[in-house]
Amino acid sequence: MHLLSALLAAASLAGISTFALAGPSYTADGKLELPANYRDWTFLTAGIDMSYSAIAMSMGGSMFDNVFVDPAAYKHFQETGQWQDGTMLVIEMRDAQSKGSINKHGHFQSGPAMALEAHVKDSRFKTGWGFFEFSSNDPAPMVPEKEACYSCHQAHAAVDTTFVQFYPTLLPIAEKLDSLSPEFKRERAAE
Ligand code: HEC
Question: From atom 33 of ligand 1, which residue's Cα is the shortest distance away?
Answer without folding.
Answer: 149
